[in-house]
Amino acid sequence: MAQPYNVVVIASINPATGETLQTFEPLTDAQIDEKLARADQAFRTYRHTPLADRARWLAAAAGILEAEKDCLGRIMTLEMGKPIAAARAEAAKCALACRYYVEHGEKLMADEPVDAGGGRSFIRYQPIGAVLAVMPWNFPFWQVFRFAAPALMAGNTGLLKHASNVPQCALAIEDVIRRAGFPPDVFQTLLAGSQQVQRIIEDPRVKAVSLTGSEPAGIQVASQAGRQLKKCVLELGGSDPFIVMPSANLDHTVQMAVEARTINNGQSCIAAKRFIVHQDIYAEFEQRFVNAMAALRVGDPMDEATQVGPLATPAIREGLEQQVARSLEMGARLLTGGKAQGNYYMPTVLADAPKDSPAYREELFGPVAVLFRATDIDHAIELANDTDFGLGASAWTSRSAEQYKFVNGLDAGLVFINGMVASDPRLPFGGVKRSGYGRELGVYGIREFVNIKTVRMA
To answer: Which class in CATH covers the domain with range 10-236+435-457?
Structure first.
């Protein structure tokens, strides 16, 4: 993610038009105190609710998300500019996450017997209390539900401090959970300014923090949580490699490369950003890839035919422009794109980026791809790992030996072979190095914010 959370204004501004749709007053300190007290009080009762009841409420939330995906998708598109089809799909994916924990939550939270010799030993998983989620704007529903579904199923209560440019999404999520039947105050949205986050983390009624966002935001929140000895999970930025070997099916691989770079208008932490191509096929891949990027339809995100919409804010566009401009000044080559109009940034491909340039070292949060030429598989892995980030990576090859070499050699929390990196409710999600720590989703996601209690009965 490419933007710190130190934004003060809480407003819905349509990035496609610049129109201010609605503004919101941040909660006062007294109002935040009241919400924290209600979350703490709700937890005292909610932690004892049967798992079957939690599953029933979560299933109802899934039903609402599916039934109202058109309306919810429209809110997402209006606030942050993702293509409307992708916004509807995001709402539906949130329903999948809810249903995963509906089906598996009871088993994942069940006592786990351990043979420790003599008597009976087992592990019991119990909720810990109110968990603060500091969430980004780029997947305004999915990022929240991949936290909320396991947290609520585990018996915790949730406090959402969403990005300040998607307040209507934040309120809509709270409304979905309320209408699903969850008890009052089990999940609350905090329309708070970023300067209030530290105070919320320091409050003893908040037991843990989950943040998805930029590296600076992660450092800030982790240090604040650390001073309070509170658990935190961080899902931060990524500069994912997309490695193409000679045995790959180029027709399919180029198509997937374009999609992997431009998903969500290029604003995704797990979007492919560095395209590392074996020298034997580099020229052909470059030509096909550049042509495909240049042919993408850029326009109104409410238009079903649009493939790339606007960047979410002017600041994001300006930052991307500066990164590209500095890289070109330092010697990178521009193969297509490199232009902006309003908040729209044309799909762009760079090559020959110098090692110390932003295109080589930094995360580019927009539809800008960087091409690299690899001499062999070892060089490809070396280039892929030459980054401070370690979120996702994909490699495209039909050779089994190469596939396993990539699995073992790539420094990333997610490695996909012949597939685009994506999150899945069934699989743990998270990174290494400066991409953060901890895991969301799957069995590990529901156990991040629980007391893993050892019980031994002699």
So the answer is: alpha beta
Residues 6+ apart with CB under 8 A from 197: 5, 134, 161, 221, 224
Q: Tell me the CA distances in angstroms from 320 to 85, 343, 407, 425, one per residue in order.
A: 25, 11, 31, 31
Q: Give the integer Cα–Cα distance in Å for 177 and 187.
A: 7
Tokens 């030459």 identify what position? 386
pLDDT, the chain, mean: 97
pLDDT digits over 402-420, tens only?
999 999 999 999 999 999 9
Query: What residues contact residue 312 under an 8 Å CB cut-off, 6+ apart?
Result: 15, 80, 81, 137, 138, 165, 265, 267, 343
pTM above 0.90, yes or no: yes
Least Cα distance to 68 among 58, 56, 80, 60 occurs for 60
The residue type of 56 is R
- Give Cα 250 distance to the centre of its chain: 28
Distance CA 320, CA 65 (A): 33
Quickly tell me which residue has 């699995």 as its tokens: 407
Question: Which CATH class for the 240-424 domain?
Answer: alpha beta
Which structure tokens are listed for 10? 């809480």
The length of the chain, given as a count of residues: 458
Active site residues: 235, 269
Measure the CA–CA gap between 313 and 5, rounded to whole angstroms.
13
Task: Quickly state the pLDDT bin for 2 (edges 50, 70, 90).
Answer: very low
User: What CA–CA distance (Å, rounded) separates 112 from 123?
Assistant: 5
Residue type present at position 415: V
Query: Do residues 306 and 300 touch, judged by C-beta distance below 8 A?
Result: yes
Relative to beta strand 20-24, strand 10-13 is: antiparallel
What is the per-residue burial (b if ≥16 Cβ within 10 Å, else e) of 85-105? bbbbebbbbbbbbbbbbbebb
DSSP 3-state assignment of 114? strand
Taking the C-alpha atoms of residue 321 and residue 319, their distance in angstroms, rounded to an integer, is 5
CA 392, 396, 398, 404 torsion: positive or negative? negative
